[in-house]
Structures are given as C-alpha cells and as structure tokens.
Amino acid sequence: MPIPELMSELAHRIAFVAERDVKFLDSILVEPDSTISLPSVATAILLATAIVALRRRPGKRWPRWRVWLRALFPMRLFRSASTKADVGFLLLNTVAGGGGIALAVLAAGQVAGWTHHGMTHALGPAPKLALPGPAVAAIGTAALFLAYEIAYWIDHVISHKVPFFWAFHKPHHTAEVLTPLTNFRVHPVESLKFYNIAALIVGSADGALGWLSGGAQHQYLINNANLVAVIFLFTLSHLQHSHFWIAATGVWGRILMSPAHHQIHHSDNPAHFNRNFGSSLAVWDWLAGTLYIPTARRERITFGVGATIERPQSVTGVLITPFVEAIQTLRPRASSRGVAIPAE
C-alpha cells in the first residue's frame, strides 16, 4: 500500500477509535443516568456540604476553605488500598465491559415484551384508562421505581442469606473505606445475578404497565432512565458509599435509605449484620424487620469483614477466591456442618 494511502487509513482508524472513546467517556462521565456521572457526583457533594454547613452550631466560626477541602476529600481515603481496589473494579465493570450485563440471560425489555404479549393473549386488549396521559406516566414512573427497589432488595437479601452467593457478594464488604467508587466494587457473578433478577421483576412490571396503558408512554425518563431513580442518583445514592454521616431518623428513617443507613450495613459490628438491604428506600426493610435506623450523631463503626478473606484488596482475593469459597459451600460436608460466614 502506498505511503499516502497508508497514512490516510491510519488517520481514519485513529479518528474512529477517538470518536468511540469520547462517546464511551461521555456515557459514563456525563450522561445523567450513569452511576459515576460527574454532574451527579458533584451535586451529591454539594448536597453533603450544604447539610454539614446547616448542622453547624449557631455562632461558630466558619472554617477556612482548606479545612473544608480536607473534610470533603480526606487524603486517607485516596491513599487507602481499599480505594485502589475500587478503581480496579471500576475499570473491570466499565472500561473492560465486565459486570455481567452482556452475559445476562434475561433483559428487561425482553421480559416486558413477553409479559405484554402474554397478558394480551390471555386477557385481550386492556380496558381504556380514564386517566390523562401525564397521570398514567406519573403512576408508571413510581411503579417501575418501586419494582426496581424490590428487585434490588430481593437480590441483596439473597446475596447475604445464601452462602453460595455470599461468597461473591463478600468482596463488596471487604471495602475498608467507603467512597462513591465502592459502588463498582462488585464481583461479575454478583452483577450477573442482579441483572437477571432486576430484568425479571422490572420487565414484568413494565410489560404489565404497557398493557394497561395500551402501549402509550407510561413513565417519565431522563436519558432512558427512570426519573425518580435519577433524582436519587443526584442526591443520596453517591453519598451512601462515603464518609458523610447523613442520617434519616424518625418517620423518614423508615422511608429513606440514608447514607448512614447504608454505612451501618457495611459495619463489621455483629449488631448491624443483616440490616438495611434496601437501595434508596428503607420501606422493605421496615416491613421485613431488617431495618436499623441510625442515630443522628455519628456512630463509631468500622467497615470490612475482618480476617474472613485472604488479601481482601488484591485481584486474587476479590475475584478468584470467591469462586473457591462458593464451590466449598456446595460440598455436602459443608452444608451438613453449616457454613460459618458473617452475614452483614
């Protein structure tokens, strides 16, 4: 190939790769429904700053901006081996295409189609709703958000209660410090399970709502994401894995899964085990008797699972060891004797 044509082909390939990478970075860093979007993280930090500022005692001097920065971004978090492991999971579950999405047996859209077809075949056309379109969309938005929350809660309970799945969920609890990056500290097998459970429950709800609405728009979306879910993402979701102690107490403590609720869930104190399984809502834990409402003042807790996993911040410890432990739970002698695991 002549040199001019070779250079042209090379330039074309470079431009293609650059465009692809820019779109990928935009999808994970800018789009509002991304779990690590910079706008949502920034909004969450501003919210935390406002809450901390409002809690100041009247008349107390405002700290210098350097003190604020150290309080918002403690260097001990960034220097921690746990945070470095979180970065590795971020690369695995986003850049490298991990996380189990591609391997999921079910997809929410597929299940929704099956449900819609099945209801139409069994029940015929849905009765016409006497509600205006915006009301239908509002009800559908709330219903699908609740469906996701139920799916998350069920999946999370299974992850803790079933020894085989706890082996794959435990790496998430080996985090010794919590930052928004800890959201990505998820084993691929754990993600595979979650995506299938969520697809089954959310897809079924979506298909039923589609049948009831006659195929009309039945939820409000932002960039193809549920409006209510995006609101929680921009407010509380990022702060659940953080060093900010923001506690919902009283009635609100039974409704919202505040950052302090989830930090209790990560505690290595046996008194906190099997508590606060919810994502954004505490309602399911309240109904199931697994709710632990944190106190308004910070409780002294440490994170992790103790010495129950070897090298918890290494690739081997958090990716390979879970397979070994999961297989061990299937052995007859293990099931007859009982598997001693912490059940945070």
Provide structural commentary:
The protein is mostly helical. It has one domain. It has 14 helices and two strands; from the N terminus they run H-H-H-H-H-H-H-H-H-E-E-H-H-H-H-H. The chain has a two-stranded antiparallel sheet with strand order 1-2. A hairpin with a 2-residue loop joins strand 1 and strand 2. The protein is globular, with a radius of gyration of 23 Å. The C terminus is likely disordered.
Briefly note the structural class of the backbone. mainly alpha
How much helix is in the residues?
Answer: 55-70%
The first-to-last residue Cα distance is: 63 Å
Query: How many strands?
Result: 2
Strand arrangement across the biggest beta sheet: 1-2
Strand content: under 5%
What characteristic shape results from the CA principal axes?
globular
Pattern of helices and strands: HHHHHHHHHEEHHHHH
Report the C-alpha radius of gyration, rounded. 23 Å
Please summarize the sheet with the most strands: 2 strands, antiparallel
What is the number of independent domains? 1
The poorly predicted ranges are: 334-344
Average pLDDT: 84
Count helical runs. 14
